[in-house]
Amino acid sequence: MTLIDGKKTAAEIRAELREETMRFEARYGKKVGLAVVLVGEDPASQVYVRNKIRGCEEAGIRSFAHFLPADASQKAVEELVCSLAADDAVHGILVQLPLPAHLDAKRILACIPADKDVDGFSAENLGRLALQEEGTVACTPLGVMELLRRSGIGICGKRAVVIGRSNIVGRPMALLLLNADATVTVCHSKTPDLAQICAQADILVAAIGRPRFVTADMVKEGAVVIDVGINRVDGKLVGDVDFEHVAPKTSFITPVPGGVGPMTIAMLLKNTLVCAERAMR
Ligand code: NAP
Fold first, then answer.
1. 52 is catalytic
2. Mapping DSSP to helix (H, G, I), strand (E, B) and coil, where does residue 241 land?
3. How far does the centroid of ligand 1 lie from the alpha carbon of residue 166, in Å?
4. CA 208 – ligand 1 centroid, Å
5. What is the mean pLDDT of the chain?
6. pLDDT of 232-258, one tens digit each?
7. pTM here?
8. So what's the pLDDT on residue 41?
9. Which stretches of the chain are assigned E, i.e. beta strand?
10. Cα 228 to ligand 1 centre (Å)
């Protein structure tokens, strides 16, 4: 069994990005820029936003942080996002979710143009992924693909099973694997015989949000297991996979924490650079 080290890989990617953003700056005389919008004071969101801003610094990306009060109006948030959309120094816009309940998140996200949508959440970008066209792909599934690639794990012709079909993880994950020529099955809460389906997977991706959901009997000997889940149990972070019992059966597995998690921010930074380069074409 080989442990896939997401923390180390993410640090390598940040170092590579630093070189690339320096080249961008030398070529175009401006920095790559990412705007981050946080509305309210949700503690988890504050940590995520801080980490994203720190990641920008490490990768040589200029960050524009905008903190709005929890009672900010729909109009105020939309106006801010529209002004960022029109700002040439801003190549990517990220609105931290969840937004306070009184705000219409869909309408606010719709103010982000597809070419600055570094989260890849827009209908346009998800559609482009489905059509195998150039676009921006959601950071977490993109991070999984990068971990597979850098671990030398082939995807073409493999049987892949994705548990979870959310628009930000499971669905784009399944499309990415399909586009890489895997035979993909997507499982969700209405899937009968889920354990048997999972047990056929060469590559099993768990993106459910249920602690230790994937047990050893659901995993084929020698499978690659990618655990996207982040769950807090008794103050400890655990994944969707029962790591202790599953790991010995696998050829490769990601730990939680230190697996997929650190890759998400690395891919956000990478998406920002890609958007900046496309803006210069
Ligand atoms: P989500 O929107 O809640 O989606 C969960 C998916 O799991 C749904 O498709 C749901 O099926 C399915 N599911 C739930 N219970 C199930 C069951 N008993 N059997 C089979 N399928 C079941 O969650 P998400 O945003 O995709 O996130 C999934 C996990 O990844 C969470 O733990 C989240 O914290 C984590 N995450 C990690 C990162 C990272 O950076 N590592 C990023 C994003 C999310 P239905 O569609 O039928 O309801």
1. yes
2. strand
3. 6
4. 3
5. 98
6. 999 999 999 999 999 999 999 999 999
7. 0.97
8. 95
9. 2-3, 33-39, 62-68, 92-95, 159-163, 183-187, 203-206, 224-227, 231-233, 236-238, 252-253
10. 9
In whole angstroms, how far apart are CA 142 and each of 77, 199, 225, 227, 260? 28, 24, 16, 14, 10
Q: CA neighbours within 13 Å on the CB side: how many for 156? A: 1
Among residues 154, 147, 40, 150, the alpha carbon closest in space to that of 97 is found at: 40
CA torsion through residues 106, 111, 114, 120, sign: negative
- Indicate if 119 belongs to the active site: yes
Q: Tokens at residue 55, please?
A: 């990641």
Tell me the per-residue pLDDT of 30-78, one tens digit each, with 9 for 90 and over: 999 999 999 999 999 999 999 999 999 999 999 999 999 999 999 999 9
| Length in residues, the chain | 281
Active-site choice (5, 116, 117, 119)? 119
Tokens 């996002």 locate to 81
Are the beta carbons of 66 and 40 closer than 8 angstroms?
no
